Amino acid sequence: MSWLLTIAPVSALIAMAMSLTHLLPIGVSLALDDGVAQALTLSMMVNFSVGAVIWMLTRQHKRELSLREGILLVVTVWAGGALFATLPLMLTIPQISFIDAYFEAISGLTATGATVLTGLDYLPPSINVWRAVLQWLGGMGVIVLVVAILPMLGVGGRQISKSEIPGPMKDEQLTPRVTQTAKGLWLIYAALTLVCGLAYYKAGMTPLDAMIHSFTTMSLGGFSSYDASLGHFNSATVELVAITFMVIAGINFSTHFLAWRSKSLLAYARDTEARYFMLVIFASVTGIAILLYSSGSYPDFLTALRFAAFNIISVGTTTGYATADYNQWPVFAPLWILFLGTFLSCSGSAGGGIKMMRAMILYRQVYREIKSLAHPQAVSPVKVAGQVVADPVVFAVLGFFFVWVALLVTMTLILGWTGLDAMTAFSAVVASLNNIGPGLHQVGPATNFSILTDFQTAVCAFAMLLGRLELFALLVIFTPAFWRK
Amino acid sequence: MRIVILGAGQVGSSVAENLVSEANDITVVDTDAGRLRKLQDRLDLRTIVGNAGHPETLERAGARDADMILAVTQSDETNLVACKLAATMFNIPTKIARIRAADYLSHPEMFSDENFSVDTVICPEQVLTDYIAKLIEFPESLQVLEFAEGRVSLVAVRAFHGGPLVGKELQTIRKHLPNLDTRVAAIFRQDSPIIPDATTVIEAGDEVFFIAATEHIRGIMRELRRMDKPVKRVMIGGGGNIGRRLAKAIEDRYDVKIIEYSRSGAEKLAAELKTTLVLVGDVTDEDLLQAENIGDMDVYCALTNDDENNIMSSLLAKRMGVRRVVALINRSSYVNLVQAGQIDIAISPAQATIGTLLAHVRHGDCVAVHSLRRGAAEALELVAHGDAQSSKVVGRRIEELDLPKGATIGAVVRPPRAEAGSKKASGHQVLIAHHDTIIESDDHVIVFALNKRIVPKVEKLFQVNIGFL
After folding, report:
1. Which of A431, B81, B354, B417 is most buried (CB neighbours < 10 A)?
2. Is B291 on the interface with A (CB under 8 A)?
3. B277 Cβ partners below 8 Å, 6+ apart?
4. Using the beta-carbon criterion (under 8 Å), do B288 and A386 form an inter-chain contact?
């Protein structure tokens, strides 16, 4: 098991780095004097010292990671990071159970946005900042994970993200070195967050709210410091800012990277995935707005359009803010909104679900099957953006989709077995597995996951982790083959 | 002229064959001695074995005294290097290279004098593709040739019963089509040429060559035969260089299916083509043709590199109900065998592409040359230079010209002239030739020669007298 030790010093370093992120909520706490600065400092110290001790003990094992160790590291960072992140919550929120705190932390780090906490408005502001920081870090980690690391591991057809990079770059990585790519991505992510925060502030938020919401918008997380989510502000301007930045964050960050480096918008025009992303958003918003207006949910079309646009884009990009209880809309609307969340966001964004790229490949594969019935001798490769997708990638995507469906069904059945009604069980799993946030019915936008039992909460937390780590990266560590020498 | 031809492949040999007959000194270079020997057995020329990209080979081929170098080897890179060497080491004035890679063609600056020094880039596959694409666009025509950058077209069409003009004298065309000016350049009746005049009567079965501004073609064709339904579905047999280019060029406009023999070739095609249906199979496989509804196809193009396969699969396709078949046939003896029989159009790649090369070999300022009727006749685009004193054509009416018998002037394209005092230049003017049209300097004149033997006389007519220089 000595190979396990090689990931320990890296994990420890990440833990120590994470402990430094406590500084932001501590600062906020001191400035606003909300009385939790001490608890946060304690958490930071624990966090740092645990990391430091592990690092001291294992640093001689530090060496280049193998593929297997890389996968294990990724799992450790998310599952273990959430463990550390529960500490501030446990120390400051009275009567929170460990499972609930862990669920909240996982929901943060996986940028899901489902919460078990009620009375967010009355939490110490620094704790809300901590929740937002978790999502922001999670989003950043995810983007680097999906753009730079998973393509190397080839998880679930992720090789495609090399070729999905549009234009002349298609067969190359963004930069020759992963660290360089990661730095570029983080810079773009941070810059966009800053712009988003300023826009929120201009739109009328307090600086604190602007910071919290810019963190959770750019990470497509969806935590808010209010129980009413973004509906609290009841401002069309705020919603417009949120829509803009959710759409930006829903596009592949490789495309942002290319656009930024070539200083032209051409990269977006060449990104087929982004085109379909925009097209589906446009069609869904128009369709649902018409449905809402004609069914009388809203008195005038513009209001219907406003609520349709915001909630569709929020759930579709797997952010999970809400400005309306769309559970009350005609049944097609909430189901379609939830369905969008399973595939809408582009690969290489912090969004969850199977991703638009995989959906396109699945669709084309189906089309190919049908075509081969009519023309048995036809050669019809699966093509995305004019590029042929190699058969192994298609198979990997098919495998991914199968596992995704199997997990969806299994976990829905498990939750149903524990006594939840069908719609709640199903939507809770969909919302967790795809890192959306709110589900429907009892876990809908007007309520939250606090009604779940500890076991049900744990299942949902596991689903979030599964979805975030692209299913296979987590499932593989449960196979004997992974542990064999 | 002393001409060095690099590469004795299909293009190289057919060019050599054509040029030898026009009294040029030809040297052919190739790495394959066997191929050269075959060529030398047939034609009066010199051959050199060696790599065309090496200075030593070029030296031996007599590059030092050559007037022109034609780099038509299989390799674009060899052709480029040879042109560069020809320019820097041997000072050959005219350098022509065959370039196939689209990537090179999209960067024309690399052919300039300071770079690879290629005066003219030719791509026979592209010429052939354009040629076939035209035939698909005008399915009633036998041949469509463009002059003056596409402003004027020469169209060959078979007259059929039911065409409004069939059975009438040519002079009635003008009354019939007051807005569409055209001139019938020649008529072939049972393969023998007729020089048309105003009283000539068009009969059903005649092969009529007419010249008109390109946008008027369809209207004129309608007068000579019943128009077919426009083409919608095209099947291409053979996914080689030409089949691939053709599919790519027309797949946006038509419903295209392409059959390719090898699976790996088909996969490459499928990756490159967007909407074309790529099939793996044999072009002579009746079951495959049947399964893909060959009977519903409007045009079938047999474009494999095997003459026999093309002929057999065209015949098969025709029998199975394709409206029109086009076959690529390299051997001229086969072309004569099948043309106008079951196969609607037999294209000889050599004849279709030789024109672009011939234009550079001719005397006088010759812009384009097109071979017609398998090389028997020719259409030329010549530029008139000089003034009434130095030139035998400028400032004269067409009826005054001393044209050899069998040559007719079809059209005149006048470049825009900047009027004194006004900066505004009008566009090119297309004048369909009448007996009283006066030719001006710099006019592009399109001449139809019924017989290849009279071509030198026509060229001579357009040459400027020494005194002018």
Report:
1. A431
2. yes
3. A375, A378, A380, B256, B257, B258
4. no
